[in-house]
Amino acid sequence: MTETHSPDATEQANPPRRNFLVKFVAVLVGGVITAVPLVFGGGFILNPLLKKKSSDEDSDGFTFIGSTNSLLPGGPPRSYKVTGAKQDAWTTYSETAIGAVYLKMDEDRSVTAFNASCPHLGCTVNYKSDANAFICPCHDSSFSLDGERSNEIPPRGLDTLNVEVRNDNEIWVKFENFRAGTAEKIPV
Amino acid sequence: MKRLLDWLDHRTGYRDLMHEALNEPIPGGAKWRYVWGSTLTFTFFVQVITGFCLWMAYSPSATTAWESVYFIQHQMVFGWVVRGIHHFAAQAMMILLILHLMQVVIDGAYRAPREVNFWLGLVLMQIVMFLGLTGYLLPWDQKGYYATRVATEIMGSAPFVGPWIQQLVQGGPSYGNHTLTRFFALHAGVLPALLVMFLGLHIYVFRRHALHAIKNEGEEDGVFWPDQILKDGVACLAVLAAIMGATLYWHGAELTAPANPAEAYSAARPEWYYLFLFKFLQFEFVSQWGEATHLGEALGAIVIPGVLFTILALMPITAYFKWGHRFNVAYLWSVLGIAGVLTGMAYYEDWYADTPEGRDFRQAVEEAHRDGARTVALAESKTGIPPSGAALLLANDPLTQGPKIFEQYCLSCHQTESRFDDFSEAPQAPGLADPHIRDQIDFGSRDWIRSVLTDFGGHFAALANIEGNRGEAAEAILEGSMKDWSDSNAETLTAPENADDYEALVEFLYTQSQRPDALSPESEVVLRGMEIFTTGELTNGSVDACVDCHSMHPVVVDPTGLSDRWILADEALSEDLQPVLTGYGGTEWVLQMVADPQAHYAGEYGNNAMPGFADQMTHQELEMVSKWLAEDFYVVPAGEETESH
């Protein structure tokens, strides 16, 4: 057994002939052992893009929101919580908050529903009775009562939702979210 | 390009660094025996990659840890692969650590001037062992939960400060959310940071003293790049292949049932690299010494391992003495040898020994697998995992809980043939089901109904073993009117011309239980059965009508379509007669029968030989056992079974 201690021995050591093949194989092996964990890890991280969301097609997508008696014809819009079933990664909620809507009743008793998310960047808009308009607290997006934008901040008006009145006075809304920041209304 | 690299070199000096890193001379040339350090560094790199991935999907709390690991294992892209790699790479790291240590000690590489690096290596070994310990708990499954509790109880047994240390580690007096947050912070934050720090020092000091070379005569000197790097790379590739092989072979790491402090787990064992210590603590003499020295558990679990480790750490100093190096090598071999033997013993006793303990262990492991697979099946069912966590899925699952309750309260009287040997006393009632064979229920089956109808005396023969005040009632049942009915009508029922009618009667009764394979109340066979039940008229001859003695309110399909279950018809076929056969063999019937058999079965005047359990069982227990006996539990639809890992 011989021992070498001094790091200075580096310079004296006469390197043996380096052959290209050895280097090539070494790099190849190094590449493979690095790639394997990275590939599986990469796939794992890309899960949200690779895994299709399983949609539950059991219901027609409409959710009960409230009674028509809670609205006045031609009166101010009111805010309602939307609750429903939700799958959040591993948790299955049979009933949980999934969003908010504004309902408004016209003089002819027809009901309009808006998703309360601002189409600008997703904050929840407020109904301001003094301005008689929807105003977003984040960037001052402003909308008239029929949902049309009244300044240039949001790219489009408030998102309307399909409404049905069932059993005389039950308001059912097909609740959907739409991508923020685009002029078009694209469901997410 | 060249100018850019020149610029970069001028600003950073990277060429010197690369030169320093790659052109390390290796006296005597590259050798396979030098690869261990590199394989360990590589395995750590794998752990960092997979660990970061798992981190992105893991949630450390008592109601989300198991659930998020379940989601990783069963729902995410490459989830089981990434988790499997992380699990098996941890095992590989322990093996490589031992090999690295052996190589260093046998080659004498720990001696001056490399003492400090040897100690740094030992610190790294401790960090890796703690990483293993903390990681084992994170899935919050029965296996990790109970194994880790033993480890923290050992910490608590340390003299003087033990209880405080235990509370600090657990984040409180018992296991819970803060145990997980703390273990996770240690596992993913503190320990890896320490590991990187000490690994940096370890490599720095290693380079300072250069490789401890074993140079044989006539060998040419080599350089790290590419000769040794190639060997290191090939070794890493072999390690990776082993990890991937294990991952694919076992379909990733196991996930047993969610942790439940109320549910004993008789197969609690630490990871294999702690198994020697586990076995050591089982010896009686260890406990006796512990008591004699007033150290208790701490003697075997902390003091003795501590002394052994100290001798290991003192090796560089021992080596100064004559024969010191030889002592060290001999010491290492003996400690590893004894640990190996203890590990082997523990392994043999658990998995192969035909002893009561061995059998219990294997049974417990099997149950743990089964419960784990069952929880996964329930989680994948339509109900999914509720916000309150997956432990409730199993706690409210009749297939899991029913047999346990039955074993405790019911089996000693209702013995099945398969369990006769477990009891010294004779059965006092017909066998209903064997909790060990839980998906096969004899009670209320079609065979059961046939046997009651045509061989009542034989079916209930075990009642004759009842003594004391219930014995009289038992006797009356055995000599009662149903016995007479069975005796006098069996021949007519089983006559070949009446085969279809007999089947129809059985199906009608079976449908009342609403079991998964029961025929619809609207099916022709069941309707024909109802006719026979009401009139007793058969194709050839007749029997005494069942409605003459029994209440029967038959089930029909829910006309509103609101319920999947069948509902009771508007009108009963017969009322106010006992025994009640409405819903016979179904959940509600069984529940009434178990809770208060006298009221449901015999009324004021009839005979009942069974004690009521309403005041012994909770409502939840009654429900679980009844639903199990009535086969009222979730069954995985055929073709949807998933792998049970």
TrEMBL record, chain A:
GO molecular function: 2 iron, 2 sulfur cluster binding; metal ion binding
TM annotation in the entry: 20-46
Keyword Iron in annotation: yes
Keyword Membrane among record annotations: yes
PROSITE patterns membership: RIESKE
Family annotation (Gene3D superfamilies): Rieske [2Fe-2S] iron-sulphur domain
Domain Rieske: 106-172
UniProt keyword list: 2Fe-2S, Iron, Iron-sulfur, Membrane, Metal-binding, Transmembrane, Transmembrane helix
Stated name of the protein: Cytochrome b6-f complex iron-sulfur subunit
TrEMBL record, chain B:
Signal sequence interval, chain numbering: none
Keyword field contains Membrane: yes
Domain Cytochrome b/b6 N-terminal region profile: 4-215
Keywords annotated in UniProt: Heme, Iron, Membrane, Metal-binding, Transmembrane, Transmembrane helix
Keyword Iron listed: yes
Domain Cytochrome c: 397-513, 524-633
Transmembrane portions of the chain: 34-58, 85-106, 118-138, 183-206, 234-252, 302-323, 329-348
Pfam families associated with the record: Cytochrom_B_N_2
Gene Ontology CC: membrane
InterPro entries: Cyt_b/b6_C_sf, Cyt_b/b6_N, Cyt_c-like_dom, Cyt_c-like_dom_sf, Cytb/b6-like_sf, Di-haem_cyt_TM
GO terms for MF: electron transfer activity; heme binding; metal ion binding; oxidoreductase activity
Name used for this protein in its record: Menaquinol-cytochrome c reductase cytochrome b subunit
Organism, scientific name: Thalassoglobus neptunius
